[in-house]
Amino acid sequence: MLKATLRSFLAHKGRLMLSALAIVLSVAFVAGSLIFSDTVTRTFDRLFASTSADVTVEPKQDLKSSVPTGAVQTVPAALADEVAKVDGVADTHADVSVQNIVVVDSHNKSVGPTTGAPTIATDWYLTRRSPVKLTSGHAPQGAGQALLDADTADKKHVRIGDTLTVQAQPGTFRVEIVGIATFTTTNPGAALVFLDPAVAAKELLGATGRATSISVDAAQGVTDAELKGRIGAAIGTGTYDLKTADEQAKSSAADLGGFLDVIKYVMLGFAGIATLVGVFLIVNTFSMLIAQRTRELGLLRALGADRRQVRRSVLTEAVLLGLVGSTLGLGAGVGLAFGLIKLMSAFGMNLKATEMVIGWGTPVAAYVVGVGVTFVAAYLPARRAATVSPMAALADAEIAGVGKPLRTRAIVGGVVGAVGAAALAGCAAASKTASAASLLGLGVVLTLIATVIAGPLLVRPVIRVLGGAFPALFGPVGRMSQRNALRNPRRTGATAAALMVGLALVGGMSVASASMSKSFDQQIDKTLGADFVVQNSNFLPFTREITDKVRGTEGVGLVVRQRFAPVAVRLPDGKRVTTTAAGYDAQVDEVAHVPYKGGDTAAALAAGSLGMDVTFAKDHKVRLGSVLPVEFQGGKRAEMKVGALTDQDSSGGFGTQGGLFFGIATVEKYVPGGQDSSLYVNRAPGTSADQLRSRLEKTLAPYPQVQVRDQADYKKLVHDQIAVLLYLVYALLGLAIVIAVLGVVNTLALSVVERTREIGLLRAIGLGRRQLRRMIRLESVVIAVFGAVLGLALGLVWGVCVQQVLALQGMKALAVPWGTIVAVVIGSAVVGIVAALLPALRASRMNVLAAIAHE
């Protein structure tokens, strides 16, 4: 049996290669994502471990904000002298390092990275742990001199002697580049500017005698943990965070982890789609191969092979296919990881391909995915093959499911579909976001499974409609193509299912994104009353200098500042919620339309008061007039009265969770040194919007990071952000389509082999080669459009349910992008034509007599 299995596998290797491609793609994405993430993790672990001080003393990070505030927490520089007296300390240094800066060249072009990595200004202080070394020029000496890292200098064409402008929190200052520093470790993609330690604190923090952290070197024989304990005992741990080198490295790696997880999960999403669609392809391929080998299997049974041996033979072929596909996929994954590493280098993160990490878990995961998926997909066809009796097989009875009743599928699909539909209905009726999202996920999974199970039941009624015009348009050829698609509903359903999965995802996300865009448009129309909004292009806060420049621009009537602050609120129900609150000037009603359920803007912005979203308040038993303990960064606390409750559904809310907001004087009192995140600007009487925009843009020309936006610009910004998610979905669709095309090609190719004698007879009675090719193309088109119709119908239902979940967050508008839907259906017909090209060409080149004599 083993010998027969191997010969059978080699005899059909050409037919199996298309199935192997699906395995290769899924394994490649799994292996590539693991290799890339392991390589980046290992690289940065080494970087952080080698550059972290033995012990680092930092300001207490008791509250973390999801929204940048621009405030820089500091410690006294004199703390370094106090720490130096601790037994076991070899050396200390007061570090000055900030990321809330912008650096521009003489042409007002940003010198910082465009990939989201920070621009960091720090004091020039070389130690054995420094990630850079001076490679040209000299160290900065006094004010007005700086070093720049070599990667940034090369990309932005900055040379020694050039003058750069640094926009820091205390103010703007110019520096001459007097030297270039080159990374000796991995460049994380940031731009680094180094200043003389004697002036760094004044230029970057606005005051001498301050530092952002204290680096401590341990004396020989003293462990990091021991030294941390001694320093903590000497200076206390209530005001400062103390971290050993290992703890600092882990903290830095954790901050980077979110970025790595995004890349990893996106690639695993591609792997999941490839795997899911590949399952349909493999099931179909093995089902058709078994149908074509009916006589061969029957002979094996007649010669004494029992059912277990036949089943084992088919599953062995599947395992062999999985091993081949997994091996090729693992190799492709290495190539994919190499490409990602090179791509990261192009974006400024200089990883070394020679240091690529392939852990033991990567090949294990690759073979588990490849072999496991193939084995599971081939199990049902293998069981079906084992149930064929020797006599039925010798009579060449087909076992692929032709003519067999679909009652079991109807019952199972109906039950699963009913449960899935109930879950989606529950999602639409739910009043809590968490429960609605859970029901949505359950409903999506169950309705997808039900559609796959019951798909063959829909083949005959739907394809009769889709191909109804074929006989009239193409005559007998059209009629035969329609009947060929109807001949085996199981096969047609399985072939279309691969395309259906991708298009269901696209349909659902298209409805969701269109609804989000429309909802945001409505919210912007309702809430934004300002003529213009001045914001950083990446929503980071900007210096007060920009606020002053905007206020001084001719034609500006009113400027309302927005500033954020991380807070923790102790609520009446006993919960402590950490969130980000917003601060506004008193005239906020003139630039925004805020609907209130209780209180008003004046009450919310008064000293000692705050505003809150009414839904959040109800959930936590907060009432108008309640007094809440509020914690700010640095251990500052205040008792604040709830002066107003807003209707966040229509206003879009302020801040983040809870919609907390208060007067900007409160922010300045408890979070000094913060920066404005937005400026809402109204024009003065007698100034047109176009005039004011032109003047603002001229004023802000030296600040390329800041943009002037009106309502239309704001809407476009939101649409562009939503489009990023949609592009990812389209990329997933592209992958699903590639595999679906392979599935249609495989099905048609095997179908042509299966119908060899039939094709020969049709040719013998006068069917031309062109007519034969057209017949196969039409069959492919109707199968592809059938998959598109099922997928889009399912996706539209999913999209409407997603919108119902979004409605609980205030996004109540429903929009269906009919243009996208129509384009997808037309595209599916094109996919069908492309998939049929090779099988149709092969069929048309058959020798007529040899085809008639084929068995």
Name the poorly predicted regions: 396-403, 650-655
- What is the helical fraction, as a range of percent? 55-70%
Number of strands: 24
Rg computed from alpha carbons, rounded to a whole number of angstroms: 33 Å
Integer average pLDDT? 84
Strand content: 15-25%
- Quaternary organisation: single chain
The N- to C-terminal Cα distance equals: 23 Å
The tally of helices reads: 27
Question: SSE layout and pairings?
Answer:
Blueprint: H1 2-11, H2 13-51, E1 55-59, E2 75-76, H3 79-84, E3 89-95, E4 97-98, E5 102-104, E6 119-123, E7 132-137, E8 145-149, H4 150-155, E9 163-167, E10 172-183, E11 191-195, H5 197-205, E12 210-211, E13 213-218, H6 224-235, E14 240-244, H7 245-292, H8 294-302, H9 307-346, H10 361-386, H11 390-394, H12 407-429, H13 433-466, H14 470-474, H15 476-487, H16 489-527, E15 532-536, H17 544-551, E16 556-570, E17 576-584, E18 596-599, H18 601-605, E19 609-613, H19 614-619, E20 627-631, E21 637-646, H20 648-651, E22 661-663, H21 664-670, E23 678-683, H22 689-699, E24 706-709, H23 711-754, H24 756-764, H25 769-807, H26 818-844, H27 848-852
Parallel strand pairs: 6-11, 8-10, 17-22, 19-21
Antiparallel strand pairs: 1-13, 1-14, 2-12, 3-13, 4-6, 5-9, 7-10, 8-11, 9-10, 15-23, 15-24, 16-17, 16-20, 16-23, 18-21, 20-21
Helix pairs in contact: 1-9, 2-7, 2-9, 2-10, 2-23, 7-10, 7-16, 7-23, 9-10, 12-13, 12-25, 13-16, 13-25, 15-25, 16-23, 16-25, 23-26, 25-26
InterPro entries: ABC3_permease_C, MacB_PCD, Macrolide_Exporter_MacB
Keywords: Cell membrane, Membrane, Transmembrane, Transmembrane helix
Main location: membrane
